[in-house]
Amino acid sequence: MSFLDTFDCSDRIAVVTGASRGIGRAIALGLAEVGADVVPAARSEDALADVVEEIEERGGASLLQPTDVTDEAAVHELFDRIDGELGAVDVLVNNAGINPDDALGAPEAVEMEGYDRTLDVNLSGAFLCTKLAAERELASVLNVASVGGVVGLPRQHPYVASKHGLVGLTKSMAIDWAPATRVNAVAPGYVATELTEEAMENETLRESLLSRTPLERFAEPEEIAAPVVFLASDAGSYVTGTCLNVDGGWCAR
Ligand SMILES: NC(=O)c1ccc[n+]([C@@H]2O[C@H](COP(=O)([O-])OP(=O)(O)OC[C@H]3O[C@@H](n4cnc5c(N)ncnc54)[C@H](OP(=O)(O)O)[C@@H]3O)[C@@H](O)[C@H]2O)c1
């Protein structure tokens, strides 16, 4: 196998959660570019249908199966349908994530409903998808964490708790499942997507985030997709149990 061939994923079937837009969409398209069949999983059917079309344009097989990662029956249905129509999943990317307004602010201002919802989607949803996918022989699991999974972030306590939890799951599952399945995380810094739209529109906050980022800019979704593709492919064959910061230097400070 040539060095470049190690990045090839044409023998892989991948599921990317939260792939109806933003970083998940970029990861799904990146995996399709290196040859994988990719099923994007999220709740918005219309947006997902567009992503399915974009995957197919890149030569990958895909399926339209709207899925809420917190709904156990729906996640079962997703993997069962993939088993029947494409084959067993090899790569799972847990990317679905939220950071809702009622989970922001000082701890005393956080609504427990917002706290629970954040943990349900970001942490329990990822655990559920991984647990059910693992009934197949997974080659690789990728968890999209955050710099908030590595260091503290003010006013984002439930989000930070969920992402630190996800990094913890990455390490413990990597130990349990080696050598058959590699489990890794990426920790993006700030990326311009719908999730960060409000922060980006606030001039003061925007400048403060930029001044905290050594590379002095926000990431494009494709800059998060590239390391995910690397970790999912055989190019990352000796990497497991790690969390790769993809943060423009945020955590180096
Ligand atoms: N943007 C950043 O700066 C940044 C930085 C660090 C980490 N991250 C992480 O990167 C991931 C993607 O973020 P993003 O910026 O691309 O956010 P985004 O644009 O808001 O996209 C979030 C995705 O998650 C899906 N989703 C939300 N709830 C879901 C559920 N219950 N079940 C299934 N899918 C669900 C959404 O689709 P539907 O609404 O259609 O379900 C959407 O596809 C998240 O885990 C986020 O925490 C983002």
Describe it.
By secondary structure, the chain is an alpha/beta fold. It has a single domain, classed as Rossmann fold (3-Layer(aba) Sandwich). The protein is built from eight helices and six strands. The protein has helices at residues 22-33, 45-57, 72-85, 112-133, 157-177, 197-201, 203-211, 221-232; strands at 13-17, 37-41, 91-94, 140-144, 182-188, 243-246. The chain has a six-stranded parallel beta sheet, with helices on both faces. Helix 1 runs parallel beside helix 2, helix 1 packs across helix 8 (221-232) and helix 3 runs parallel beside helix 4 (112-133). The protein is globular. The N and C termini lie far apart (39 Å).
Topology, pairings included?
Elements: E1 13-17, H1 22-33, E2 37-41, H2 45-57, H3 72-85, E3 91-94, H4 112-133, E4 140-144, H5 157-177, E5 182-188, H6 197-201, H7 203-211, H8 221-232, E6 243-246
Parallel strand pairs: 1-2, 1-3, 3-4, 4-5, 5-6
Helix pairs in contact: 1-2, 1-8, 3-4, 4-5
Bound molecules: NADP nicotinamide-adenine-dinucleotide phosphate.
NADP nicotinamide-adenine-dinucleotide phosphate is lined by residues 17-24, 42-44, 47, 68-70, 95-98, 121, 125, 144, 146, 188, 190-191, 193-196.
